[in-house]
Amino acid sequence: KQGSSSPSVSPTGVFYTTCRDGDNGKTFKKLSRGQQIHVILAEDQYAWIEWYFKRPLASNFRLFSHGGFVPDQGNNQFGTRQFIFDIVGTGLAAIEFEECKRTWSWYANPSSTIGQAIPGGKVWKASFDVN
Questions:
Q1: Which 3 state secondary structure label does DSSP give 77?
Q2: What are the C-alpha distances in Å from 102 to residues 30, 98, 113?
Q3: What pLDDT band is residue 111 in, cutting at 50, 70 and 90?
Q4: Confidence of residue 30 (pLDDT cuts 50, 70, 90)
Q5: Cβ neighbours of residue 114 under 8 Å, at least 6 residues apart?
Q6: 31: which strand partners?
Q7: Alpha-carbon dihedral 104, 105, 111, 117, rounded to 10 degrees
């Protein structure tokens, strides 16, 4: 399965490729260093579960920003969370996400880590081929 490799351009002139829930398992080709990958995944706030990328992150990528939960307009129980990665290396590498348990300490202390991955929880993974 191949993902769409036609990037968009941000207001600051950075090319980026957007990946969503339906891109799980896909490979995105023809990416370049200096571009970004935007991963936007759906969450259910009432489940106390949120997405987080598996660490260590492949050396081809660097986390640029980890967005907060953005609720759907019709039902704020559901929404999305966006992660932005800078592409800093070449070759084929994957970014993998897993469902993690959210803990109160995550809010009280932003430097603390999010809860552990949920056994049997959903996983999302895509591969990126960087020239």
A1: coil
A2: 35, 12, 10
A3: very low
A4: very high
A5: 50, 52, 100, 101, 102, 103, 106
A6: 130
A7: -70
CB of 103 closer than 8 Å to CB of 115: yes
- Which 8-state DSSP code applies to residue 23? G
Given a cut of 60, is residue 91 above it in pLDDT?
yes
N- to C-terminal Cα separation, the chain: 19
Can you tell me which residue has the tokens 């070449």? 90
How far, CA to CA in Å, does 24 sit from each of 29, 63, 64, 123? 15, 19, 21, 8
On whether the pTM is more than 0.70, the answer is yes
Work out the average pLDDT over 82-101. Answer: 96
| CA 118/CA 87 separation, integer angstroms | 28
CA-CA distance, 23 to 47, in Å (whole number)? 23
Per the rule left: phi > 0, alpha: psi between -120 and 50, beta: everything else, 122 is beta
Show the tokens assigned to 29: 């080709």
